[in-house]
């Protein structure tokens, strides 16, 4: 009841205040007619008639169409007005409105709770929101008393609903999870890492709301805002590398920026605006959402936006290609890429409305003749600060003098850059919308960037080049040294000294092995020029191969592995294939040719670099891939090239993308931060490099790794304080775990949750900082804390702890090395029921009480897992076993059952499960037919068993034949209907009643049992 009182009820109260009408579960079910349907039929029929002026028969026909629509993207298209149908008495198709976006009051908004949907695995979402009878939002509510433990469960339940009752999610816009205090939203099908809060209530303020729940639900579910989100801020993007379709819903900063720009364009007073959304926060998608709303503006009457032309400009060909692909992948109407000046001018001057053109700013170079009628053009300029170079911005404005101009940038605009502010900004406004570095890190849209300077004697001060030269080149013959000086001493000369390169390559490899490799993350090395790229490649390959040999690899195999780990990406030069009498120059040119990648090879390398578990792991570059290259798996940038201002900000942002790596054991590792390791001395002068920006714009652009050292000390202090407060100081891990379990059971559950949270934070910060020497004094405590957390979580939740799955690889490796110290190997290893050693725990004689309790906890976890998997296969067959497991655990927890007695009951239960699994063989039936028999038995228990068995075998044969002849039968509605008819005939022939219920239950099982449905 606490879940309803503390989470569901407050949500309902807020929704009612926003204008949502509450339906009881019974009334909602009556409107659905059957439990396996999800549309509120009378509400939809009434809305269709009112919005379209049609008769009941046509409305019923439209309902029938929609009831069978099973594609989320197609649902979105139809909801947005992309639906037409031939109506009674008419000779052509006519557009059909499912929602009135411009007048929200003409729609019906309902919410109901405990929305049970019948299926093979029936599910009951907590709350569902309907617009005109169509379910658009599913809300999962959890009690706030156990937030730490419940958050993951809420996400798992949403995923479970999407899997088991997919029809509820065909029209779905997005989902919410809430505990009545914090609220997160995510797109249909999104994993938990992509659920996020909506912190900014623009255009309102937080203090206008009574609490965060009221603010969050207004932001996401207030009827007019929900319709705006549905109409303009949901896209389906095709991943160009995997071909997978991904549904995306905007983030709050995208919603805010787009609406500000659209309002300004519709008003027409100011025809420009400057938008800074920091790199990695979805700037390209913001441009897509803006173009989509400018084109369709379903929610507003704006004569000034009747059918605008949109021109999207970038400052580089690769960015043009990237933006073009994003627009095309998101299905934006008629985007055209203009590859030449002539094509661009012709398209712009042609006139007409509704065009979307994609091009580069350079097409306007030298253009001074104004194109007439440019007032209906809205120009979106990416990386707009760079358009001021070579007067490109002036040429653009001269060519389209009356157009709207919206400038986008991923880096802050320099305070001295008057032209960009004048070209795109309104006087006194600065940015139309700003989403800065700190905003993105706070929201988790990007990770913070930490920097560390390595070996100060490797850094190069250009003012001291002569001194450095004499130090580094002291061993060269005098004539060679003089020759180098005559050519002119440069920073590159020092940077490429072979010994310096070799030493840094060794340092990079040792750092990479401990920071990136354990978790599968990757790194980029930025060298001073193309020659340095080759020198680094050679040195690094040798260092890695030698290390692999020391680890036991054969020399040839070690070298092959080392070479596979490294790829070089640089531009080609005409000099590369020229002969030279100088053997060093000739060798260098040969290497530059050998390692050069053409467009196809470069594309392949970048794709593999982005992939977990694929090589290469290290990219060496000098100019390419420092901007516009998104590889979330990149954790570290090793910087050995002097970069300044925007170039520095754009380069370091390669590491700020969020990334979560799925592990084979089901766990997940999140990238904690990006790292810049500076060998050239750039970051030593970071403040100086960034002083031309407004201080608030570049605050925390990079944070010294010393910050993390302080975080570790603070996390350690808080963890130890809670540990002492609970009286666990001085105990070994097992004793502390049982003591914590006793405290939690005795009413100190909140204390346990606090300790659990603080322990996780301590372990995480330790892992983030590794291999920094500052961690060494905390290593022993981390070992204790990690072991304790696994044991205590297991003892308290009576289930296997999954915490260790999300530890970083560095922590996991450490635990594996020291596992014998804690005895964890025997405590946490769970066996399957088929394991020959599964029964070992049932031998209770001679065991002390702690051993018996340990065995009971392990068997609880094992049998809960086993029965959960079996119930997922067939609830009718195995549901009773799951209930028995839970009942035994309940009695043990309440002190009604000793551990030894509980183990004996578990032993009996295990025998019953094994007997059930073998029962089909005794009857001469296959497993699936036997499962069908169990389904029928549960519905008509009084019917003759032999009759039921014959019917089950016959029905099993029907679906077995279907799977053999039509492997995709589960997705073929007409074919499924024919199978239902065959099943009904078999049931009728055997005199078995309740055929409708049996057919539905059997079909739900068969789709998974025979059809292999995902």
TrEMBL record:
E.C. number(s) listed in UniProt: 3.1.21.3
Family, similarity comment: Belongs to the HsdR family.
Quaternary structure annotation from Swiss-Prot or TrEMBL: The type I restriction/modification system is composed of three polypeptides R, M and S.
Catalytic activity: Endonucleolytic cleavage of DNA to give random double-stranded fragments with terminal 5'-phosphates, ATP is simultaneously hydrolyzed
UniProt xrefs under PROSITE patterns: HELICASE_ATP_BIND_1
Helicase ATP-binding domain residues: 264-430
Keyword hit for Zinc-finger: no
Highest taxon of source: Bacteria
Species whose genome carries this gene: Mesorhizobium caraganae
Keyword Transcription: no
Name of the protein described by the UniProt record: Type I restriction enzyme endonuclease subunit
One Pfam family recorded for the sequence: T1R_D3-like
Keyword annotations: ATP-binding, Coiled coil, DNA-binding, Endonuclease, Hydrolase, Nuclease, Nucleotide-binding, Restriction system
Coiled-coil stretches: 698-725
Reported function: Subunit R is required for both nuclease and ATPase activities, but not for modification.
Signal peptide positions (record): none
GO MF terms, alphabetically ordered: endonuclease activity
């Amino acid at each position: 009841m606490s879940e309803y009182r503390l989470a569901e009820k407050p949500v309902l109260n807020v929704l009612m205040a926003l204008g949502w009408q509450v339906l009881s579960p019974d009334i909602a079910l009556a409107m659905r007619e059957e439990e396996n349907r999800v549309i509120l039929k009378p509400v939809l029929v009434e809305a269709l008639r009112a919005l379209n002026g049609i008769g009941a028969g046509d409305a019923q026909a439209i309902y029938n169409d929609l009831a069978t629509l099973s594609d989320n993207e197609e649902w979105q298209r139809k909801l947005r007005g992309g639906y037409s149908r031939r109506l009674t008495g008419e000779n052509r198709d006519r557009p059909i409105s499912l929602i009135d976006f411009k007048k929200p009051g003409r729609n019906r908004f309902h919410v109901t709770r405990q929305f049970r949907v019948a299926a093979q695995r029936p599910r009951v979402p907590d709350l569902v929101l309907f617009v005109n009878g169509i379910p658009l939002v599913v809300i999962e509510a959890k009690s706030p008393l156990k937030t730490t433990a419940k958050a993951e469960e809420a996400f798992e339940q949403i995923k479970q609903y999407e899997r088991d009752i997919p029809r509820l999610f065909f029209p779905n816009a997005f989902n919410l999870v809430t505990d009545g205090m914090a609220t997160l939203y995510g797109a249909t099908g999104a994993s938990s890492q992509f659920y996020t809060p909506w912190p900014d209530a623009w255009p309102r303020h937080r203090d206008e709301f009574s609490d965060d729940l009221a603010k969050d639900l207004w932001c996401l579910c207030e009827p007019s805002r929900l319709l705006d989100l549905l109409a303009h801020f949901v896209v389906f993007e095709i991943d160009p590398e995997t071909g997978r379709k991904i549904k995306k819903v905007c983030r709050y900063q995208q919603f805010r920026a787009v609406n500000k720009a659209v309002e300004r364009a519709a008003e027409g007073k100011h025809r420009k605006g400057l938008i800074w959304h920091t790199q990695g926060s979805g700037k390209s998608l913001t441009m897509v959402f803006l173009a989509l709303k400018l084109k369709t503006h379903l929610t507003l009457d704006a004569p000034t936006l009747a059918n605008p032309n949109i021109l999207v400009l970038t400052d580089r060909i690769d960015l043009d290609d990237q933006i073009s692909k994003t627009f095309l992948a998101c299905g934006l109407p008629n985007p055209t890429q203009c590859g030449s000046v002539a094509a661009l001018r012709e398209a712009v001057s042609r006139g007409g409305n509704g065009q979307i053109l994609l091009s580069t700013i350079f097409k306007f170079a030298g253009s001074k003749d104004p194109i007439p009628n440019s007032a209906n053009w809205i120009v979106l300029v990416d990386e707009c600060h760079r358009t001021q170079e070579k007067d490109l911005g002036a040429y653009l404005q001269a060519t389209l003098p009356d157009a709207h101009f919206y400038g986008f940038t991923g880096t802050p605009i320099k305070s001295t850059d008057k032209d960009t502010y004048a070209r795109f900004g309104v006087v006194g406004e600065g940015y139309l919308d700003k989403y800065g570095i700190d905003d993105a890190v706070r929201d988790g849209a990007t990770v913070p960037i930490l920097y560390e300077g390595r070996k100060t004697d490797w850094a190069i001060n250009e003012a001291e080049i002569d001194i450095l030269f004499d130090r580094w080149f002291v061993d060269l013959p005098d004539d060679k040294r003089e020759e180098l000086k005559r050519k002119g001493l440069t920073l590159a000369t020092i940077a490429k000294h072979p010994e310096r390169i070799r030493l840094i390559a060794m340092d990079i490899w040792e750092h990479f092995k401990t920071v990136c490799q354990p978790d599968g993350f990757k790194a980029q090395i930025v060298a001073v020029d193309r020659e340095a790229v080759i020198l680094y490649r050679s040195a690094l390959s040798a260092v890695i191969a030698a290390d692999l040999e020391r680890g036991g690899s054969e020399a040839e195999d070690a070298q092959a592995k080392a070479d596979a780990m490294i790829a070089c990406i640089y531009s080609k030069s005409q000099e590369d294939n020229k002969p030279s009498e100088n053997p060093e120059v000739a060798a260098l040119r040969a290497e530059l040719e050998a390692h050069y990648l053409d467009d196809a090879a470069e594309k392949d390398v970048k794709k593999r670099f982005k992939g977990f578990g694929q090589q290469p792991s290290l990219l060496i570059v000098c100019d390419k891939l420092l901007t516009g290259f998104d590889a979330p798996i990149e954790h570290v940038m090793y910087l050995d090239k002097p970069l300044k201002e925007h170039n520095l900000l754009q380069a370091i942002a390669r590491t700020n993308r969020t990334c979560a790596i799925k592990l084979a054991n089901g766990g997940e590792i999140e990238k904690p931060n990006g790292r810049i390791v500076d060998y050239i001395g750039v970051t030593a002068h970071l403040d100086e490099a960034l002083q031309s920006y407004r201080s608030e714009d570049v605050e925390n652009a990079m944070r010294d790794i010393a910050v993390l050292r302080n975080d570790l000390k603070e996390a350690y202090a808080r963890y130890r304080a809670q540990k002492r407060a609970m009286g666990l100081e001085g105990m070994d891990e097992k004793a502390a775990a049982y003591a914590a379990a006793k405290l939690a059971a005795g009413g100190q559950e909140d204390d346990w949750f606090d300790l659990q949270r603080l322990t996780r934070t301590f372990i995480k910060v330790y892992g983030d900082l590794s291999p920094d020497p500052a961690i060494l004094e905390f290593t022993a405590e981390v070992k204790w804390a990690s072991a304790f957390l696994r044991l205590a979580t297991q003892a308290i939740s009576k289930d296997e702890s999954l915490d260790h799955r999300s530890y970083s690889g560095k922590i996991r490796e450490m635990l594996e090395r020291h596992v014998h110290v804690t005895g964890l190997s025997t405590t946490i290893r769970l066996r399957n029921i088929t394991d020959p050693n599964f029964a070992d725990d049932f031998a209770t004689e001679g065991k002390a009480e702690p051993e018996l309790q340990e065995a009971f906890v392990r068997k609880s976890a094992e049998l809960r897992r086993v029965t959960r998997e079996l119930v997922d296969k067939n609830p009718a067959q195995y549901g009773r076993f799951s209930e028995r497991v839970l009942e035994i655990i309940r009695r043990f927890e309440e002190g009604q059952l000793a551990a030894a007695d509980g183990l004996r009951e578990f032993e009996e239960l295990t025998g019953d499960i094994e007997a059930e699994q073998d029962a089909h063989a005794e009857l001469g039936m296959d497993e699936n037919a036997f499962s069908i028999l169990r389904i029928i038995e549960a519905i008509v228990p009084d019917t003759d068993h032999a009759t039921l068995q014959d019917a089950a075998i016959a029905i099993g044969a029907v679906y077995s034949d279907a799977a053999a002849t039509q492997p995709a039968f589960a997705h073929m509605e007409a074919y499924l209907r024919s199978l239902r008819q065959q099943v009904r005939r078999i049931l009728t022939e055997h005199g078995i009643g309740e055929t409708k219920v049996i057919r539905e239950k059997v079909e739900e099982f068969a789709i998974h049992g025979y059809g292999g449905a995902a």
